[in-house]
Design goal:
alpha/beta; 14 helices; 7-stranded mixed β-sheet; Arc Repressor Mutant, subunit A; Aspartate Aminotransferase, domain 1; Aspartate Aminotransferase, domain 2; pyridoxal phosphate binding; 3 domains; transcription regulation; globular; 4-stranded antiparallel β-sheet; DNA-binding transcription factor activity; DNA binding
Amino acid sequence: MLYEEIVDQIMKRIEEGSLKPGNKLPSIRVLTQEFACSKNTVMKAYGELEKRHIIYSVPQSGFYVVEGYRRREKMEGEPDTIDFLSAGPDRQAMPYRDFQHCINQAIERYKEEMFTYSDIQGLGSLRVQLARHLQNLQVFTIPERIYVVSGSQQALHLLVSLPFPNGKRNICLEQPTHAGFIESIRQHGSEAYGIEVGSEGIDLTQLEELFKHNDIKLFYTVSRFHNPTGHSHTNETKQKIVELAQQYDVYIIEDDYMGDLDANLKADPMFAYDPSGRVIYVKSFSKVMLPGLRLGLAVLPDVLREEFLRAKFAADVHTPMLTQGALEMYLQSGMFNAHIERMRKLYSRKATLLQQAFQKWLMTVATYSGSLSGFYSTIRLPIPIKAKQLQEHLKHQHVLVDHAERMYLPDFAKDNVIRLSISQVDEDLIERGVQIIARGIAELLSRRTEVRFVSKDLE
């Protein structure tokens, strides 16, 4: 049948690499012309690929290759690719069908509203559901203070550009940190001051000095499951940071992008220590659901309302109604809570396996970070090994990792840190992957030693 030919052709393009994870697929119109077939035939082919969780659809946008997709069937003798690089959610745990049902419900409920511009702040009924959902994260607020955004990165980008009531200009941020936030600072030309996230978190005395002497407008922090280190601040540290911000008139942007994954019910967000507006709470649904939805939220004080709405209007007028409505249904139905419970267990198992593998294979060759939950961790390589050098070396061993250079401000630049994400790695491959990383570090160190000895012999 012709639709099977289309499926085979798309699969071939993915296997060959001409279509990569995250790439947008050809439109239905383009494929009808290419294969001289009907739209229904192409839609049937795309439907089959969706069932296999190879592609996913984004309303009003098109079809995309699932992030981190790798073919399930290998040629005989072909080694596994162990992907510590891809940072999207585990594709096999994503609620494609459940969310498709919610999209269909949203179309039926909001079919008339979809032909008009919606509230810039976000769908009112969704904000009611979000306020209820946030209570589970110890964020107690009202729908009027919640702003729906096209992914948390949009909220961060807009906030960097806004004037704040304290009249200050500069930004303080953890080092390393999310590369998108660093790029937002660069785009807006803001002056940035970094504070290092070490194995014990941040130095509060140094943070106080930065707040005291550097005209800090806001402090950006990932309070739990830090990207890229995986570190989570203790409740005591969070409270102390809030107290310093109050003392020195600094606002805090708390990026709690993976707070849903925290199984520790006693872990509070910084927002809980000052819900008045000093702490701006930002949250994403990308890492726990479907990244292509581009949905997030920000909880803002009233004093930032008008400026933020103007900036949001200039950016995209409003976040798409269909995805907002679908998220509303997903939260209201209880599907989200069931999904998150599965995700917590999944990532907790993977993170535990990763830390055990670190302890077994890396103790003598490198230092590492991370936690027993969450998503990310880092490995700091021994000097003189460079992250990009190891990254390239590991590719030949079928292990993919990410270098963290873009996650540092110039004054904090490090070229010997790699980031690992556990999201796309099968549980039974985690230890093998870490073992290969450890072996790669040892091999590169051995080569350096051999070169040094050869150089001495030539002198």
